[in-house]
Amino acid sequence: MKKLSFLLIFSLLLFTACKKDHVDATNTKTLQSSINDMTASLPTIKQIKFNEALYILKTFGVDADGDVAELKALGQLINGKKVPEIMAMADEVAQKNGIEWASTAPPSLGEMNIFGDDKAKESDPNDVKANSLSIITRPTGDDGTGAPTAIQIVPRLVDNAGNPVAFTGAGLEATLEVFSNGVKLSTAKNLMQDNNFKGFNLKFSSIPAAKVVDNKIDITVSVKTTAKTFKMTKIGLDVNPLLLKMPTSPVVDSTAVNQDPAVIDPNNPGTTVPTDPNATTAPATPKQPAADPKNVVSGFLNNVSSQNLKAAYGAASNPNWGSYESFANPTSGFGSVKNVSVKNISTNLSNANVASVNATYDVTDKNGRTTSLKATFGLKNVNGEWKISSYKINP
Known about the structure:
The chain has 8 helices and 13 strands. By secondary structure, the chain is α+β, with helices and mostly antiparallel strands. The strands form 4 sheets. The chain has a 4-stranded antiparallel beta sheet with strand order 4-3-6-7, with no helix packed on it. A 4-stranded antiparallel beta sheet has the order 10-11-12-13, with helices on one face. The protein has a 3-stranded antiparallel beta sheet with strand order 1-2-5, with no helix packed on it. The radius of gyration is 30 Å and the shape is elongated.
């Protein structure tokens, strides 16, 4: 009897010792097993908060599409981590994404299960009964001239009559996808805890200008409940082209000198002679442009203002502006400009190879709308002439 009791106690200790206190993401099976072990060691309320933390990290802490990919990315993110570390990570992700969640707050997201058990529980706040999804969009912000700087996108779950459905205490995954001409530009996620959800604030400055066609975007919003994922799309929302995100050209290191590892032997063109590591070669001095880079930018803006776009385009060597047709496009290019009123231009960098010019000016488009801009023009020396090589709108 004593022997049997000893074996029983030993087996219990062995079983307890095998339980993991950290995440093992070797594969999906070990990931689920280790998380189950960690959850079982917690009090009931802490178990719920731990599952919420895992859901926050899986949904907002990793960059992946689809449940399987998100789960794999989550495993890589938390591999080897213990409960307190995971809770702290979830707090950081929630704060970064503006989610009203904290590891020290009471449970607030319903019953979360990151391993895909979507069956409705007896009382499941995420099992919201709705008929469809509606989207409200409205311009927000002010660039100083009355023009909006963003679009507020607010989804609402509605019933058969189109009335908002009342619910609280949920943790519904809401996803915003932004497109232009069929090309996806960005994705954002948030938690919809009730039908007073504030939605998404889509800033124009976060949308890449080079990928927007005809100054319009399309949006798709989806909201995932326990039983169903609701989805709604809006087509042809207007954006302010002057506030879109402009690409920046790489900084040119004017002090760098490229040297060939070998030189050709003039007496034997088929062979090379290694360069003397102790020898010094004076770099070729580029022809210094005679014009002031500030005057080049001033002339460019004057040509845009007078719609002498051929001359304006000729003053540039900027691959981001593309062809002349793209540059002069009357809706998405400089062809949409009616007038430019320059307030200030100053040179803040200039050497033999590159220059940088700051300009403050007002742009009036052909619809009569005026926008104040602060821009930085990058210029480079092309055969003794300054050419505009980059353009960045500053906040």
